[in-house]
Fold this sequence. Notes:
The model has no long low-confidence stretch (mean pLDDT 94). By secondary structure, the chain is α+β, with helices and mostly antiparallel strands. It contains eleven helices and nine strands. Helix 1 runs parallel beside helix 4 and helix 6 (188-218) runs parallel beside helix 8 (263-288). It has a domain at 188-342: Up-down Bundle (Butyryl-CoA Dehydrogenase, subunit A, domain 3).
Amino acid sequence: MSLDTDTATLLADQLDRLFAQKVDAKLLRKVEAGEPAAALEAEVEALGLTLALVPEEAGGAGLAWSEIGGVLESLGRFVAPLALAERMAAGWAMAKAGMEVPEDVPLATWDRLTLSGDKVSGTATIPFGRPGAKVLATAGEGEAAKLVLLEIPEGRALPTIGRDPRLLVEFASAAPLASAPDPMGGEALPAALAVVRAGQIAGAINHALAESIDYGNTRVQFGRPIGKFQAIQHLVAEQAGEAAAAKAAVQLALRGMDEAPSWQAAAVAKIRAGLAVEPVSAVAHAVHGAIGVTEEHMLHHTTRRLWQWRDEAGDENAWSERLGRAAIAGGGGELWKTVVALSGGR
């Protein structure tokens, strides 16, 4: 059973209030320096949102994808230094594959591992990963693909533009703690992670837009707020258009994940959200000027993570190539049907 929209909105509002109190530039600097946001993680864990997309009969909250848009936007708007989005995706994928979902939902990686017999090998990047914790990964291709639960080995910290912790690890003939055939032919976890990343991007973009509007209305130059200058208004209007397009693509994908989960719907969301990152970030910094990159200002924390999230779970180039190849393989007669299906039509 799915929660109603009002309940889902209340959950998002609760996260907004928590993050507004707890997430600031000081906390983010600590996380970027290697200090986990343990207190914040504990408070979010208490809300039970890691199990949000897991059906009630499997011990979860039973939310639909279309009901977690506000949660994803909140995570993006405050650039919360947590692996909540990844763990929500992992819980959903495990439940869909019929795996037992533990209360301590594992982390997740978008990197595809190789499968040889019952052993797993390959390199994986794990957001907020730590040795000894558990991670869910996709191993193998197509009908032979499996979702595998692995213990995270020792790895090395991976420097990123976002500066959020990323652990790079190597699995060498590792024995999974649990596994199950992937119900989407190797696409369940990659699609889920692409959608949650797109949702975070949409939230961060809307925050950058709101900050640009606010700063434009308060920063006075030549005797009036800079937001009154037509050049600034044009830039912010461009931001608004990109923000609206990204959010619409995410909403489309969230509905698609409820109705008929597919990598194509996830691809559309990740592509369009990714395409919005560059123009939105550029305008935000143009409006703010030098203050946007000062250590105590939140803007660069937002835009750096936008650039990071754009590359993770497949960037727009990778997903566009996949969509293009699939369209070509389907033949010209199927192209319009595919476009209509992806737009929510029948």
